[in-house]
Queue: 2 jobs
Job 1
Amino acid sequence: MMSLLGKEPINLIITGVGGQGNILISRLLGQAFIEDGYAITIGETYGATQRGGSVASHVRISSEGMVYSPVTPRGKADVILGLEPSESLRILTAFGHPETFVATNTRPIYPLEVAAGEAEYPTRGTLSDLMTGLSRKTWYIDASAIALALGNALLTNIVMTGALIGTGLLPLKRAKIERLIRESFSDERQVVNLHAFDLGYDAVAG
Amino acid sequence: MGIDMDKPGSTQLLMGNEAIARGALEAGIGVAAAYPGTPSSEVIGTLAEVARKYGLYVEWSINEKVALEVAAAASLSGVRAITAMKQNGLNVAFDFLANVALTGTNKGLVLMVGDDPGGLSSTNEQDSRHIARILDLPLLEPATFQEAKDMTKWAFQLSEEISNVCILRSVTRISHGRGKVILGDLPSMEKWAYFDTSKSYAGIAGLATRYHKSIHENQGSIADLYGSTPFNSYSGPERPDLLVVTCGSGWLYATEAVKTLSLEQRVGVLKIGTTWPLPTQFLQQHLAGIDRILVVEEVDPFLETNLKEFVVDRMAGHSYRFFGKASGHIPPYGEINVDSAIDALNNIMSIGYRPREEAYEQKCREAAQHVPPRGLQFCAGCPHRATYWAIKDALRMAGGNGVVAGDIGCYTMGIQATGFSQVKTVHAMGSGMGLASGLGKLEQFHFEQPVLAMCGDSTFFHAAIPALLNAVHNEADVVLVIVDNGGTAMTGFQPHPGVDRDAGGEIRPEINIEKLCESLGIAVTVVDPYDIEATRNAFLEVLENRGKARVVMSRRECALIRAGKRLDPIARVRVDGSKCYGDNCGCNRYCTRIFRCPGLIWDRETLTAKIDEAVCSGCGVCVSICPQSAIVGETA
Amino acid sequence: MNECKAWEELRDGVIEENLCTYCGACTGMCPYLVPYKGRIIIRDQCSLDNGRCRAFCPRVGVDLTHVHNSMFGSSYESGDIGVVKDVFISRAADPKILSAGQYGGVVTALGVTALEEGMVDSVVATDSQDKCAPFGAITSRRADLFGCAGSSYVAAATVDAFNRAVREEHRHNLAVVCTPCQSLALANMTSSDLAEKNNMGKLKLVIGLFCTWALSYESFGLFLMEKVDPHDVVKVDIPPPPAETFDVYTRTAGRLSLPLSDVRPFIREACTYCIDMTAEFTDVSVGAAEGIDGWNTVIVRSERGLELIDKAVKRGHIKIETLPEKNLNHLKDASRMKKKRALKNICRKTGSRNDLLYLRNCPTAMQILLEEE
């Protein structure tokens, strides 16, 4: 299995559209790494809007205790976790390199410019050609469909977290994330979130 | 996770602003007051959450000046206090700051300012550090999350030692980044406030020079106090080819750039945590024997210019070549990052580093062409969209090319397509009303355009009131549109004097904006922007009634507050596919192209409009804009 | 395709040039253009460059030859009162109609006939009960037609109402009561390439009204408001020469006679470029019978018009009498005078006899009229 264990630093970028909940993922993973003794720096990039704009969380993981810049330098992303496919491509073109791994949700959230007919949204084929061509490996997960099948589109972020752990790229134990999910959600929300995590995990590792 | 853990020595993942709040808690503050402003809001927001537990008084003040005054009152009465503001806010507080800096303080008073390099959430990217120099106040710049906490705690000590305000300058990347912080001890809680009436803090005419002399002469002792602080440090070879002098987030960028380029053996990094006044002995020690200096810092060449002055005054006999913003090696505007530092070092040291192979770079450039833009927009169901829609229609119908003066808040986006490009001016808090007041007095110069000023409920209290009174008194021909969405939405729904709660959630008397306006003799028209036709007609009527200041209160709760309360949608909205003619309709995609709610999307298969159920908030406003009545809203 | 968007051409070439008659041909079809208080408001920017708004607007440019040919199967002549199949004077038989009407009540009687005979299911007319703010109304009932009787002399966007009515699925056959500019717009729309897109086939009957000019909404409204309460006004009238007055009849204070010269400044500039007095592009046109109080002059222009008159007479809704030769000649002179005056005004505006603005596509007929000057 491919793993980034031992790389210094490991640069993970979680990207999506405002409101998709990528900050929850970065905090969850950040907590997991802190508990394992890593030094973590997380930077969030977003516009002035609460919702609907491009957002990215840069998680920089150091086993040497280094504090890195909260924003990843050009061409230094090791893993990109995308909650929206065109945002995955946006981050890949800015921060990717030929060895970058990508795990992306496949369901688009169309920008207003596309609905207004002012811009084109790339087809699924174009998106996957481009991402596969620019990455070492890209996993495509229909996370929104999985989340909707569980009854809530907002579970997409947890499905994608499961997918990320399922890739085996990060030196994190599945059980630890499951524990943190249990701690993060109220009793009645735990079951469905853990289920979402498992389905995401299986979509990649299964 | 959280700042309130009584676990000294434990490691937490904290946001920079949370780390600052924790530092204040460890310093034993009693009072925290602020007006929210990105990227500073979480400092006081976090303290508000633990106020009860730790016996603090925390308030969201009406504006930054009052916040600083409230904090200073605690200091003068023997209780440590902190205030936090963004760079624009410091301008509001500056008048009081410039005077309290002369009269001095008693217990520790720390002013945290969150600068916003690149103006990511601001109208400007002003560098606040100049103000520390203007006022001869100590200035600290944390470079890490740990330092954010530790420096804050130290800042209170410094403040007390010099009996003056200590400024802590953070930037967006520190304030909003998260990282590892090892917690310290929390002091005991009980504090006693008492204003010692044997002392005076009065800055009256005739005393200014005496005060100024004393504070100026104090500069040397501040530099001495900096002494051997660990916040100033050097790492690198004994005789570096190049010395990078840096502060704040610049240090993160410089060290990472040195590491990325493997320059550890050639380049030294001098980190300055105390950027005003400059730490004399520390600098003298590290600048001796150096030829070339690169300064890496956010926004203005503050450290760079001061260093140049320093070497002239203090490093006689040495000569230096400076690289930085003046030389063009570091951008003198906009936000910098690791790449800025890499580019500068790459250039100065002639390394020939490139982050990616050209072939891959080319592929990325081509692929990026396929990524659609994703511009700023009002949320689905945002009442501001509806208000601007009504304003747009009313101004077109009234004719005369009306002018809309904007202000600071989510509704600033009225300058863009999401607000139908209605807003033509945006400056400081409350400036929309001030400009409008002036525009409304140009009649004698043949000015006939209708004038509207926008302001949010929170902005109204912050700075629009004096401008409104000015317009009333001078009979300026203006309409003030107060977009009241029930909180300070843009910065995270902090309460303001118009809300019945305070920062800690305690019930407080709310100030009714209509009654306030009506007591001034202003005609107030209250509208619900979700009823866009009635709102438009109200605007038309108010626009016709020219001659003095009028107020339209466009009141509707923020869609995010509503969503947060998990209330049912007002309407279940859908597009009746049999009625939507798509591109065959004469409407030319009116809903998606003009109205532009993110809940309305274009179905590429059916070539008709569609509601994105995952996004739609169910406000029902779009139902009334479809000329075919194809958008149907069923009352939920 | 044109370089500028349709709405930009309307704004720059018609509205801002004061050529807009406020007929409403460009509105009622989309959300972008709306008639409001005598002005066409451009609410938002449409990105289409071949919209109906421009295609239908007679003031962007109208090919009178083409329009006349499509409607009457003959060329447009420079003449006086247009195509005439019959001309006479008439008045409504029903005293209720007669009293509501401006002169002889014939228009209302013809509308009632068309509905009763099933020739149409809906009539679009101008509701002038608010004398300052008339608007296009869609009616299907006899009683509602009464509300549209009487004139206000203020321009109304009646074609806007037609454009809304043709979209309604339950309306199949429409009649429109309209002024000359509106009838020209309807004829232009019917002969347009985009006619089908606007369901112009539903337009079955056009009843024209003679018109010399119309007043502009806002300025006249303000002027009138200074004299009377507009809601108190029941009728306005311009008595035949040499009275030279503008008579306002109020419910409470009776008649107020204003000098016509006080009212003239409020005439829409667009009206001064109009070459049509008798509504030449209609099935039947109706106006005052000067010097014959309580009677209308009626010009029948089409077979459809003859059929309508025939049915109205048979149902006893109208009475008809011969129009004295002297009156006919007078009508012709007045009509020809309006044409010449309009052309003179156009040439004065453009500064050239070769630039005839919206009439530039009909040079022959216009040159004949210009030669007479």
Note: Chain C touches chain B at residues 29-32, 34, 36-37, 39, 41-48, 51-52 (CB under 8 Å).
Job 2
Amino acid sequence: MLNVLNDETVNPVEPFLRTDRMPHIWCPGCGIGTTVNSFARALIDSGIDLDTIALVSGIGCTGRVAGYVKLDSFHTTHGRAIPFATGLKLANPKLNVVVYSGDGDLSAIGGNHLIHAARRNIDLKVICVNNLIYAMTGGQTAPTTPGHATTSTNPYGTFEPAFNLPALVDAAGAVYVARWTTFHVRQLARSIGEAFKKKGFSFIEVISPCPTLYQRRNKMGDGLDTMKYYKEASKVKNGAPTNEVGLTLNGEIAVGKFVDRDRPDYQTMMRAQYVESLGERYIEVTGEAQPEMECACG
Amino acid sequence: MAKGRVSIVVERCKACGFCVEFCPTHVLSLSSAFNSKGYHPPHVVHPEKCSGCDLCGMYCPDFAIYGMKVAEAKAAAQKAEKPAGGEK
Amino acid sequence: MKADPRGVLTGTHFVDGDHACCEGALAAGARFAAGYPITPSTEVVERFASRVPTVGGSFIQMEDELAASIALQGGVWGGAKAFTVTSGPGFSLMMEHIGYAAMTETPCVFVDVQRGGPSTGLPTLPAQADMMQARWGSHGDYEIIALCPNSPQECFDLTIKAFNLSEEFRVPVMFMMDEVVGHMTEKVVIPPADQIEVVPRKHTKKSVEDYLPYGTNGDMVPEMAHAGEGYKFHVTGLTHDERGYPNMTPATQDKLVRRLQNKIRNAADRICLFEEANLEGADVVVVSYGITSRVAQRAIDMARDRGLKVGKLRLITAWPFPEKKIAELATTVKAFVVPELNLGQMVREVERSANGMAKTYAVSHAGGGVHDPGEILKAIVEASRC
């Protein structure tokens, strides 16, 4: 890659990228790429074996992350990253399964799957990039769009209350809930690292600019203006009750780690139940290759 | 002697301005040069102030810039000079 | 290779089609299912939920069919053979993900125990009205394989076949049962594991550097890898190239979609299974499938007793449709009689394949019960006179 200083150093994020697919499709000032840096930093710092990571995304701008990271990655259907991820995890419990998707994908069409996976406490690390809009399709209202923003499907301004995502997943049973913005690059990396250490349903919301649609239509400036707004308006409120962290148009953004609790994850509960009911008859799925999976070709 | 140095991948830059704004020691500013897409990439105006913190790299949504501590950069250069043993 | 004995319930059983289907899946090596309850299919996964923890697999009841139909695919990419089970309304919900499986070439089985429709219809009564949907239900150009058992024994045997075909061709296979076949109880013989052939996953042996997720070696079916093995591959529903990377151009679209179609079509002769009798010299051939084929058999016997020259063609593979066989027969027979528990679905394929060389008589039935053999006999008699 072209490098002004022509040296032998490599961007620390480079090994995590499918460099043969650069440049990516995200707009100037979009924050999704910034979140990928934090994700890469978390992977480096945690020392996780990259072979064990499976990244699943849905459809949308954030959904494209799957195509740009050099990991086993799955770009699935709109709203269904979480159930696909659930299947991956159950078939191979050794995988560290990350769901990386947007607010519309995860909370609108994917809302049902979001709450059930949180309820079941499936061991998934969900990174929800929330740009408050449906960006890929041209700027339609999302369940997270704060009133009274202008969108392409609410051209006279939205009037629906928006989801408070931390409250939603907290109520559904998530064991780790945090929110940062794309300004909080180091804190985000740290939260992702904590989620990797946690067993159970972890949800990290990242507020991010969509300068082309959300910010432009609402005359909020460009990506940099939005980042400055995040810096100004964010208040770290670790441990805040999640029902108090809702977002408003141009208002305060509560960030921090809101929920960090322990409760047995789905597979732990499943194993316990089967051991109790079946005793030695229970054969656990461990993720070791099964004999019938061996290749018959060539 | 600066503690850090910045590398810029000029062709990837889309001039969002994040690195310039959030560098804690104001090492960067947008240049008047153009890359082939018509954007003004950043350039280093105060190299002596760079600490190698890599905040520029963490902020850049286009993976177009990164900072490194000089010691690390030297080590990387030495490693690259050695005959190939590890993966490229 | 031979079946894993842990999943094979060798012996002679007296079970219904739903239960036999579950045993077939286990014998084929299925170790993951994601389901959602819907009459008359639920027993398949209820039995699987009970059996699979002692065989080394898992089952999860998902929150809806949208989730079930994609969770099973996550299970496949995580290394398991997987399936789901549903009926009409659920089948409709699963269509997007059947398309995803076809596009990403995810080997898996979708069981549809057909019931009266449309919409909620007749939850506890039979129909065969999802046959076209099985082929065309999802958007875009793609091919699937569909099998139609007509007995609990076939629910066992053909489920294994369904899994084997899905692995061989990396395609979702539709297992088209109906409520009667699903709920009728008959003798089912399950042989010892070493007498059951299963097709293993077409897993790549290539190195990480050389492996192309959607590259083919001339046989049109790419080799697969699983998450967690270090291949760091990408899978997407977007039109993609051999690396699996999105490549949304007409050229890539043409190459990909034609391969998805041709990998099945070019092998149609091998894939198409049917049962035939008395086709030589026949004036009329009764073409049927599923439970209707058993009623049709009665009608055929009655007609032959009357001296009519009637042959039987029972479709075991409904898709790809055996066009060549029908076209061939159309040159020698006067007519086809096609009884179905629908208002005319597979009969259209018969008519199309006959291409005007023979007449086609549909014996339609809106569902809710099976045909009276007399209705089919009447059609045979009329067809013989034409």
Note: Chain C has two domains: 5-195, 275-385.
